[in-house]
Amino acid sequence: MPQQPRAIRNIAIIAHVDHGKTTLVDAMLRQSGTFRDNQQVRDRVMDSMDLERERGITIMAKNTAVRYRDVKINIVDTPGHADFGGEVERVLKMVDGVMLLVDAAEGCLPQTRFVLRKALEARLPAIAVVNKIDRHDARPAEVVDEIYELFLDLDATNEQIEFPILYSISRAGMAKKHLTDHSEDLRPLFDQIVETIPAPQALRADSLQLLVANLDYNDYVGRLAIGRIFSGELAIGDQVVVVKRGGSIKKVRISQLYVFEGLKREPVDRAGLGEIVALAGIEDIEIGDTITSADNP
After folding, report:
1. Cα distance between residue 87 and residue 80, in whole Å
2. Of 37, 93, 169, 262, whose CB has the highest number of CB atoms within 10 Å?
3. What are the counts of helices (DSSP H) followed by strands (DSSP E) for the chain?
C-alpha cells in the first residue's frame, strides 16, 4: 500500500556551509532508527559527490527519509549557490516547506539568501533552527533578530514571518523550542516539522502527475528519474506518458519503482500522492519532463 499523503512531510534544508546540516541529518537518521548507535557512518552523509566534498558545497539535491511515529519525513538537500538556481527551483517544487539552519555565532550568511528567497517566492512555510548554541561565541538572540530581518528583506508574507524557531546542538542530537528548555533529543524538531509543514495536497483529482526534478544512474536498471508525485498513483508495469519540455509526448512503461528510506532507495510495487520516488524504464528521460497517466495525459 502506498504511504497515505497525510502521513508524509516533504521538507528541504537550507543552510550555509559548515552550519551543521549534515550533522543534523545524521542525528535525525540515528534517532529515527535508520542508523544504529554502533554503526559507522561516513561523515557528511548528504554531501556524496566528489566535487561537493572537495569544495564543501552541495550541488546535486539528495534525498533522505526518516520516520517519526507514524509520519514519513522526506528530506531534500538544496544547492547552496546561486550558480545552481535552476536546480534550486526544481528541488523546492518537491517539498511543502523548508528548514532554515543558521549557526548561532555566524548568523545569516549570503549563501542561504538566494535559496530562501526562492522558497519564500514559492510561498513555502519555514522553520528556523539556530544551531550550535553551545559555541562559546554563540549569540542566539541576535541571530534570531537577523533571521527576522532577512525574512522582511526578502518580502516574506505575514504568514511566513510567523515561523517557529528552535535551538539546537546538532552534534549532540538535541533541539528545543526555548533556550531555557531541557532537551536530550530531536523530538521537538520532529514535532515541529509534523506540525508546521503541511501534508501533500493533490493538484488534480486522480490523474497521475509527476515532475522530474533530478536524475540518477543505477548499473542494473540504467537512468533513474527522481521526482514527486503531485497527484494520482504510480505502479510497476504502468504505461505512462512522458511530456517533454518542448511539448512532444512518448508512451513508456515503468520497469522499476523506488522510494527513499534512510539513505537508500527501496523498491516498491506502488507509490502514491506526495511521495518522492525514483523510477526506471525511460531511457531518454530528462530533468523538467512531466510523467502523466496514459489514459488522461
Report:
1. 10
2. 169
3. 7, 17
With contact defined as beta carbons under 8 Å apart, do 130 and 98 qualify? no
Closest CA relative to residue 104, chosen from 151, 168, 164, 165: 168
User: Facing residues of 99 across strands?
Assistant: 13, 127
pTM of the model: 0.88
d(CA 297, CA 289): 13
Return the closest-CA partner of residue 100 out of 120, 82, 84.
Answer: 120
Cα–Cα distance measured from residue 91 to residue 214, given in angstroms and rounded to the nearest whole number: 8
Fill in the DSSP letter of residue 3.
P
User: What are 133-172's pLDDT values in tens digits?
Assistant: 999 999 999 999 999 999 999 999 999 999 999 999 999 9
Q: Set out the domains of the chain in order of their start, with CATH numbers.
A: 5-196 (3.40.50.300), 209-293 (2.40.30.10)
Residue type, 266: E
In terms of Cα–Cα distance, which of 90, 89, 91, 86 is closest to 75?
91
Query: Which of 105, 60, 106 has the alpha carbon at shortest distance from 80?
Result: 60
Query: Quick one: cell of 250?
Result: 512518448
In DSSP notation, 231-259 reads ES-EETT-EEEEE-TTS-EEEEE--EEEE
DSSP, res 48: -
- Among 88, 90, 2, 123, which Cα is nearest to 290's? 90
